[in-house]
Write a structure and sequence with these properties.
With 207 residues, the chain is mainly α. The protein is 77% helix and 0% strand. The chain has one domain: Up-down Bundle (Ferritin), CATH 1.20.1260. It contains 7 helices and no strands.
Length: 207
């Protein structure tokens, strides 16, 4: 494993956890006006956006771990491109949380370390399993984004625009992984991933 790449990914990790994320693309909600929300609606949206921000922290770590251990240069390049889009998701969700008067999850460092370890482990197993794990992750993210979109207050067009664009990007990432030869994961592994994600969502919604 190239030492320079390890140092680069370590720097990315520090910036993910400690520095504000930046978006190359315009924020999806930039042209929309904030709608009035009740206190309970505002609290609920903050919780949802905090879950999604936490998920993007995990995605950064996962992609970094996978890119470090990927053997196929083309697959590694695709992972790095997807990671850039996930960085934009970080920026969008963080900004929305701040706009609503909330804060990001205190558990982010824990989720980051765990996801990085999973990413490295998936890559060590080989590219097809590495990409298979990525594909399944993105399908599960798409499913929970659909749940969040259905749960948002009808008038909150800003949050809806952000989550809709994120969903489109996640679908593209899954399709990318499939096109590079992702292996279908065994059902028990998918189940464990689902349970782990559920625990993360429950914790991040509150803190």
């Amino acid at each position: 494993m190239n030492v320079d790449r390890v140092i680069t990914e370590f720097d990315k990790g520090l910036r993910t956890l400690l520095a504000p994320a930046h978006s190359i693309r315009p924020h999806p909600d930039a042209h929309l006006v904030d709608a009035p929300l009740s206190e309970s609606e505002r609290s609920h949206v903050i919780g949802l956006m905090r879950i999604n921000h936490c998920g993007e922290v995990c995605a950064q770590a996962l992609y970094q771990g996978q890119a470090l251990t990927a053997r196929n240069p083309e697959a590694r390049q695709a992972l790095e491109h997807a990671a850039q889009e996930e960085t934009e998701h970080l920026a969008w969700t963080e900004k929305r949380i701040r706009e609503l008067g909330g804060r990001t999850s205190v558990f982010n460092p824990l989720w980051y370390v765990g996801s990085l370890a999973i990413g490295v482990g998936a890559g060590i197993l080989g590219d097809k399993w590495n990409l298979g794990f990525l594909e399944e992750t993105e399908y599960q993210v798409e499913a929970h984004l659909n749940e969040h979109l259905a749960s948002l207050p009808a008038q909150d067009e800003k949050s809806r625009a952000i989550l809709t664009q994120m969903r489109e990007d996640e679908v593209k990432h899954a399709e990318m992984a499939h096109s590079y030869g992702a292996a279908a994961l065994p059902a028990p592994i998918k189940g464990i991933m689902h349970i782990t994600a559920k625990l993360m969502k429950q914790a991040s919604y509150r803190v």
